[in-house]
Amino acid sequence: MYPQIFSAAKEVDQAFLIILGFSVLILVLVTAFMLFFLWKYNYKRNPKAADIEGSVWVEIVWTVLPTLIVLGLFWTGWSSFKAMRTIPEGSMEVKVEGRMWSWLFVYENGRKSANLVVPVNTPVKLVLDSKDVIHSFYIPAMRLKWDMVPGMETKAWLQSNSTGEWDIFCAEYCGLKHADMLALLQVVSAEEFDVWLNEQPVDGNRAQALMEEYGCLSCHSFDGSEDAAPTLKDIAMRERMVVLPNGSKVSVVADSEYLHKAILKPGAELVDGWDDEMPPYGDEMTKEDVDIIVEFLLKGVRVEHPGKMVAEEQGCLSCHATDSSEDVGPGFGGLYGSLRQYVAADGKEMAAKVDENYIKESIVAPSVKIAVGFEDGMPPYEDLTPDEMALLIDYIRSLAGNK
Ligand code: CUA
């Protein structure tokens, strides 16, 4: 069983144990009585059937005792239910949105996340809502399972006395990818949480502009090509062989320290197979600029496009592939600029060129134009900010060549 990291978990476990205990006890009693009566009142011992008069005392006992037991069981269930329902005053609030087929967690400062990150030992109030069909928010480690009905806000809370990671599931069958509706509950220290909550996503544009400015990109590529220098594609934490100035070879991991060194003193750890041609940037770059570039390189995913983060957060990628393969929805690859056959509201097949407006409409009101061969299953995404919308459209545009 999961550790009892949530105070209400104790009560829930206790309720289950008590109910199970009584059930076993009653099973044993009933079986024992049954066997006893089989033996005592069998035909051999009682060839002639006797007329047994009722007993008031026995009737009182077997009415009152079960009533007390059932009331007691109700009470244990009720008190654990109350512990789960009584949200402490001043809890930190997180909005939980379920939709086909992913989760979105929205914090009070507007931070959005695909995983539920919370500080340890802090009560967290969850405001649950569904965008489309009924889902069920389930964290086994918290003994928490709450149905999410579209248009009906329900509230729950949790608090963990231990840091760690636990799974979040959807416990209500909600369609094709129900089983993929997964997320993580990440319980971190208060300090870590503070940093996480207020961290600005690395500004990929800024870092890329800097790298353009300093000329990094005239030799290093992001797409894997290695004409003049090692590529920066997927460089974060990659293991590589380097040659030290004394000629010996060692294997290093491209972490922050390594990347700093590689920019400031490239000759000190030279990637095996490359000449010592890159000038050291120690004098030229400010410390801040180096930090921005290194951070950017370490968050490799964001190198691709800042809009990809939006797509991940919003769960687009659980139904749309980034190439042109078909999933629940059409793939994003090669979509932009293509001619799409779609079914209009009146059922007629039409064609349209995929441009900014087409994509915007497909996000905000997906039912208006249904791509031929697909079903009308996507919920409307009306609450994207204009920035998020612009990034998302730009991201899809950037995938135009990704067939
Ligand atoms: Cu959502 Cu199952």
Describe the 3D structure.
This protein has 403 residues and is of the alpha+beta class. The protein is built from ten helices and 16 strands. The chain has helices at 7-40, 56-85, 190-198, 204-213, 256-264, 287-298, 300-304, 306-313, 356-364, 386-398; strands at residues 92-99, 102-107, 112-113, 116-119, 124-130, 135-139, 144-148, 154-158, 164-170, 183-188, 239-243, 249-253, 270-271, 339-343, 349-353, 370-371. The strands form four sheets. A five-stranded mixed sheet has the order 3-2-1-5-8, with no helix packed on it. The protein has a five-stranded mixed sheet with strand order 4-10-9-6-7, covered by helices on one side. A hairpin with a 5-residue loop joins strand 11 (239-243) and strand 12. Helix 8 crosses helix 10. The two termini are 46 Å apart. The structure holds dinuclear copper ion.
Q: Percent of residues in beta strands?
A: 15-25%
Identify every distinct bound molecule in the structure, by name, code or SMILES: dinuclear copper ion
Biggest sheet character: 5 strands, mixed
Would you report the number of β strands? 16
Structural class, by secondary structure, is alpha+beta
General shape: elongated
Low-confidence residue ranges: none
Tally of contiguous helical segments: 10
Compute the CA-based radius of gyration.
31 Å
Overall helicity = 25-40%
Average of the residue pLDDT scores: 85
Order of helices and strands: HHEEEEEEEEEEHHEEHEHHHEEHEH
Q: If strands are numbered along the chain, what order do they take across the biggest sheet? A: 3-2-1-5-8
